[in-house]
Amino acid sequence: MPYNSSGSWEGTLKEGQGDLAFGLIKTQHSVPQDLGGKGIGTNPEELIVSAAASCFLITLAAIFQFKHVSYQRLEVDSTAEFEVTPRGPKMRAIHHQVKVYMDAKGETVEVEKHIKEAEEGCMISAALSGNVLISASGSIIQE
Prior knowledge:
The chain crosses the membrane at residues 47-66. By secondary structure, this protein is of the alpha+beta class.
């Protein structure tokens, strides 16, 4: 099943900007300010860490469903580490810090194991494998 994105760009690398459209999202994009660009809209760095975070959450939700783990909600803060190389920015690592909100009586024994499974099972993680270190850790909040 194909997924599509379209985009445009006008101007130089550092002074330029463009538009992106995918699904229901339409946004501007440019080189981030910390890399010398205009910092307008989003950028590839934000898009890839957002894709990784979304994939991780959905994969963890699927694992919980198949393993019959009851939870109220999942939250993730994902951080990507980049460095500037002579060939351009290079992503080195992504770390997902997930919070699993569960009922006070929820079974927590296997949650850490499932977080690791989601880290390894996400299709974005698989696509980046060998190039980017992906890690995940979590905390359980029983309400």
